[in-house]
Amino acid sequence: MNVSQIHFEQDLRNNGEFRTGVSLHGHTLHSQEKLDFIYRLATQITPLRLALERGEARYRNIHGASLDLSRAWWTPPLSAYDAWKLEASHIAERFDLAPLVSLSDHDNVDAPILLQHREECRPVPVSVEWTVPYGGTFFHLGIHNMAVENARAIMTEMEAFTAQTSRVPLADLLRMLTSNRDTLVIFNHPNWDENKIGEEAHRAAARQFSGIYKQYIHAFELNGLRPWSENRTVVDLARQFGKPIVSGGDRHGLEANTILNLSSATSFSEFVDEIRDGYSHVVLTRRYMEPLAMRILENIEDVLQDYDNHVYGRHWSDRAFYLCDDGVTRSLKTLWGTEPLAVRLFTNGVNLMRNPRFKHAFRVAFAKREEVVL
């Protein structure tokens, strides 16, 4: 049975059918977000290219080696508790529903395990966004609600597979994960060519992967930070393999997830049962309908803001890291000393978003919206 329905927030009338709002796929400061995507953006954005060139030159002058951003990463601004609170409050206040929140950082379960020590967060599932190499690309699987008592041991096996040092076949790992009836496996943003192998090649690989591992995939994700033109192809992919579609906000900044699930479940395990049985209700919020380019720019602004009480440091360069040739991880602030002028000009430009007049101008510039047609 596969009964997936998509609702628009503006049309939603909850007559008691739904008791719970479910937020899936949100990131915290425990997530390592690769910086090598900047190389791809720099070919399209001149100020970013100039800032990158100046930053690389300064690094070479100081350290006598080239800056390789594939060895660098940034961390989202919110702690585990702040991320949980943001998502839970959004569901409770905006939809008047009981919240279920699953945080899934990249290849890391620290956030949900830490939350287990807070009484109010005990229902939070232990979840992760697992990076799975496949052919010439990679995919991300959302693994939700792993058993708390052996989550660390499971992650050790999953990390080895990601690093391609494991001798355990992927099918065996997926069989182990899905043998737990309470665990949910979601193919996150399956048609996003994140590794830039070519859209057609990536989507062919995603179809092949889905066909081979169909029995272990419970649902396909509609992603809150991907355009509807791509998400619409995911609906078709899910239909092809007889699977439901589910939400995945993919929040990295201060914007709560813009695509959610609606449910009658009273616990995350009950929600897993619904999805594994093929029933899913997804709601697209008004915020998802806003211009995606504008939303991404606002997310970048969130990352570049100063946070006085952040565990890694106040400035964004305190929260971005680089694996150096000596094997030691250092912050960009430590490596740069004084932030390169071009980088500072770029970040100051993004921070203009805080000015209401400039924000309005950006909104006008990105006014075109993509029509969502079901």
What's a concise summary of this model?
With 374 residues, this protein is of the alpha/beta class. It has helices at 37-42, 46-63, 80-95, 110-115, 151-162, 170-178, 199-212, 228-240, 268-276, 292-304, 332-336, 341-351, 356-365, and strands at residues 3-8, 20-26, 33-34, 72-74, 98-103, 126-134, 137-146, 184-188, 219-223, 245-248, 259-263, 279-284, 320-323, 329-331.
Output the keywords:
374 residues; 5-stranded mixed beta sheet; 13 helices; 14 strands
Write the layout of secondary structure elements.
Elements: E1 3-8, E2 20-26, E3 33-34, H1 37-42, H2 46-63, E4 72-74, H3 80-95, E5 98-103, H4 110-115, E6 126-134, E7 137-146, H5 151-162, H6 170-178, E8 184-188, H7 199-212, E9 219-223, H8 228-240, E10 245-248, E11 259-263, H9 268-276, E12 279-284, H10 292-304, E13 320-323, E14 329-331, H11 332-336, H12 341-351, H13 356-365
Helix pairs in contact: 2-12
Description:
The protein has 374 residues and is an alpha/beta fold. It has two domains: 3-31 and 76-289, Metal-dependent hydrolases (TIM Barrel, Alpha-Beta Barrel); 33-74 and 293-365, no CATH class. The chain has helices at residues 37-42, 46-63, 80-95, 110-115, 151-162, 170-178, 199-212, 228-240, 268-276, 292-304, 332-336, 341-351, 356-365; strands at residues 3-8, 20-26, 33-34, 72-74, 98-103, 126-134, 137-146, 184-188, 219-223, 245-248, 259-263, 279-284, 320-323, 329-331. The strands form three sheets. A five-stranded mixed sheet has the order 1-12-11-2-5. Helix 7 (199-212) links the parallel strand 8 and strand 9. The longest helix has 18 residues, at 46-63. It is globular and about 60 Å long. The model has no long low-confidence stretch (mean pLDDT 89).
